[in-house]
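From the methods appendix. Each design record in this collection lists the tokenized structure first, followed by the designed amino acid sequence. Records were kept in a plain field format so they could be parsed without special tools. The example shown here is representative of the layout used throughout.

RECORD:
FOLD TOKENS (487 positions):
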């Protein structure tokens, strides 16, 4: 009976959130509370929840202060030079632009938030793709796949959820997975190079220059981040572009006189709204503290990898130090915290809501009965390979369901099944991260709509283009994990 009710509870949770009948937070609380009553354990609901909250509090603290820390680093301009450097690197070569897309998305993904990554990446590179007539689904596909691999950082959603669901330390899951994830990131860069070569073959070697330039070989004038607005919506200064294909010798933009000679012809200026990026005049910038913030971030990441202190403690100290040094006035500190409060509340609230789900699933004994049923159904030959089974299953399951559904509903069962065959929970948790490269293009991920919306790409086009490459990247991570003995 507990087995059936356990699976029905998980199915109910998944259906409600996939059909958007309830928010994940509400479903994580109300569904298990209802089923706790149905199994006759309603009197113990409070104890189950409090036990779950106590277990998950460190994870919630880590996420809360990690979001504040990286949000402050973006506010003060830590990543601005990276954006400008990548724009200079890209010039007008399609190969460089696509590789630069992967590089920028990977770097900004260190904040653990997909929406922020996509806003910065698209704002910086959309003008180049548009004016050079490059495929925008290449940009969205590469950015989403790179973010998916990097989204496995300990303060990102998947690792935190795996740690929460299995009551493990996020650092113990992530650090051994670094070689496999690094291999996956290399695969993303190789993919970007191949797609860039394809774009170069289609378009030819392009030149991006100001209207005043006379030859196609002169140095390109690059988009300059500027504007008077604030935040990610700040406009960039409009620059007149022209593009020249060395394959055809013809201007690729609208011509002034209709000619098709070898000389480059200026394209029409793009509307100012097409050029967006980080506002270089936003009041939160702290250029005088740039090297302090860079050193603080590097030190934080090094200490995180070395696990000198628990990850929640590191981010708690880092966020407090970053706020105090960059914004010494109390009003400014409150403003920065308020600016990131929505993300903090959504993420930490989800973790505490999960305490109800995992508490009921474990406390009532449902997960134990479900695991026993699952173990009985697994052929003996596959039992010792539950790590591989989990890695393979994570690819489609994290695409067709949310991370909440997979990590809180499926992974605990796989871990119990693995334990029966001598496979540790850590191995299962690491294997469960394999599918994240594909997950970031799932229709259940809100951030992907930010990506396709800002890039003006149809979601269907993005899906058709990205799924095969992202799934291949996930398989590379799985193969690397097996090769390195991590999974």
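DESIGN:
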């Amino acid at each position: 009976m507990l087995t059936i009710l356990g699976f029905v509870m998980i199915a109910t949770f998944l259906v409600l959130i996939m059909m958007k009948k309830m928010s994940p937070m509400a479903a994580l609380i109300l569904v298990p509370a209802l089923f706790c009553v149905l199994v006759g354990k309603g009197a113990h609901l409070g104890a189950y929840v409090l036990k779950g909250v106590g277990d998950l509090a460190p994870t919630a603290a880590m996420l809360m202060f990690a979001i504040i820390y990286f949000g402050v680093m973006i506010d003060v301009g830590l990543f601005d030079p990276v954006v400008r450097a990548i724009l200079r690197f890209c010039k007008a070569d399609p190969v460089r632009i696509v590789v630069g897309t992967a590089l920028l998305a990977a770097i900004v993904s260190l904040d653990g938030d997909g929406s922020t990554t996509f806003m910065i990446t698209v704002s910086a590179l959309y003008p180049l793709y548009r004016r050079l007539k490059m495929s925008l689904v290449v940009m969205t596909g590469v950015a989403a796949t790179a973010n998916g691999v990097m989204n496995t950082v300990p303060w990102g959603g998947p690792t935190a959820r795996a740690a929460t669901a299995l009551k493990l330390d996020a650092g113990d899951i992530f650090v051994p997975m670094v070689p496999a994830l690094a291999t996956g990131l290399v695969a993303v860069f190789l993919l970007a190079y191949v797609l860039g070569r394809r774009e170069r073959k289609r378009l030819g070697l392009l030149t991006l220059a100001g209207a005043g330039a006379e030859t196609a070989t002169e140095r390109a004038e690059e988009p300059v981040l500027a504007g008077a607005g604030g935040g990610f919506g700040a406009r960039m200064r409009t620059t007149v572009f022209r593009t020249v294909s060395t394959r055809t010798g013809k201007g690729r933009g609208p011509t002034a006189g209709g000619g098709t000679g070898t000389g480059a012809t200026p394209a029409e200026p793009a509307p100012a709204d097409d050029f967006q990026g980080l506002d270089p005049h936003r009041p939160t910038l702290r250029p005088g503290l740039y090297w302090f913030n860079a050193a603080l971030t590097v030190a934080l990441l090094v200490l995180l990898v070395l696990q000198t202190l628990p990850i929640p403690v590191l981010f708690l100290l880092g966020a407090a130090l970053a706020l105090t040094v960059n914004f010494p006035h109390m009003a400014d500190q409150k403003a920065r915290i308020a600016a990131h409060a929505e993300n903090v509340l959504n993420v930490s609230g989800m973790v505490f809501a999960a305490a109800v789900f995992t508490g009921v699933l474990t406390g009532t004994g449902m997960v134990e009965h479900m695991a026993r049923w699952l173990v009985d159904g697994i052929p003996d030959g596959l039992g010792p390979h539950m790590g591989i089974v989990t890695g393979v299953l994570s690819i489609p399951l994290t695409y067709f369901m949310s991370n909440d559904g997979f990590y809180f509903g499926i992974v605990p069962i796989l871990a119990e099944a693995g334990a029966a065959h001598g496979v540790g929970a850590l191995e299962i948790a690491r294997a469960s991260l394999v599918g994240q490269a594909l997950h970031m293009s799932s229709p259940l991920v809100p951030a992907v709509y930010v990506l396709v919306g800002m890039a003006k790409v149809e979601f269907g086009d993005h899906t058709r283009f990205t799924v095969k490459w992202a799934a291949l990247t996930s398989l590379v991570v799985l193969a690397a994990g097996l090769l390195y003995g991590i999974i």
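APPENDIX NOTE: Residues 289 and 326 are 7 Å apart (CA to CA).
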